Amino acid sequence: MGQAIVLFSHGSRDPLWRAPVEAVAARIRTSHPGRSVACAYLEGCAPSLAQAAARLVARGATRLTVVPMFLGSGRHAREDLPRLVAQLRCAHPGVQFHVQAAIGEDPRMTALMADIACE
């Protein structure tokens, strides 16, 4: 497997809330069939980031990219996520972890949201 992606989001007990994040994962699986992708949540539902990473590592992932599915770099992205990734690095010393910026801060996402808002 080698490289894998974890879509990391806040989480909710409401299963409908998870649908957009899971739809992104499904789209990745369809458009990039060779890439492994998992969803992970901070709270309110499973799997946690640690659980999702452990599953991917067990399947052979040696490089994990964590994509924060947040509109901005709030407390979860600035404080919680770095702490969780530090724990992952300790738990999986042979795995490389890369954390992207919050998805909402990408200029392409900003442009897409503006286009959608103006429709």
TrEMBL record:
Superkingdom in the source lineage: Bacteria
Cited CDD domains: CbiX_SirB_N
Pfam families from the UniProt entry: CbiX
Keywords noted in UniProt: Lyase, Metal-binding
Tagged with keyword Nuclease: no
InterPro entries xref list: CbiX-like, Sirohydro_Cobaltochel/CbiX
Name assigned to this protein: Cobalamin biosynthesis protein CbiX
Annotated organism of origin: Verminephrobacter aporrectodeae subsp. tuberculatae
